[in-house]
């Protein structure tokens, strides 16, 4: 593997952008009912619940009242 971060073409012109990053394939499964997805779903649900409670407290109306326009 080339350890330089630049290349020089056949005319001697410096090309800083010719070095490509090393590619890899992430083989870990992150779909379906995995521990990661369940943790993320729970965290997003907690954020949504706290946002709902804060909306009700700061506005002085219930969430259903906000939806119906009361």
Strands, helices and their partners?
Blueprint: E1 7-8, E2 14-15, H1 35-59, H2 63-68
Antiparallel strand pairs: 1-2
Describe this entry's structure for a reader.
With 70 residues, this protein is mainly alpha-helical. It has one domain. It is 44% helix and 6% strand. The chain has two helices and two strands, in the order ββαα. A two-stranded antiparallel ribbon has the order 1-2. A hairpin with a 5-residue loop joins strand 1 and strand 2. The mean pLDDT is 81.
The total count of helices amounts to 2
Beta-strand residue fraction? 5-15%
Shape: elongated
Query: How many domains comprise the coordinates?
Result: 1
Give descriptors for this structure.
mainly alpha, 2 helices
Quick structural overview:
With 70 residues, the protein is mainly alpha-helical.
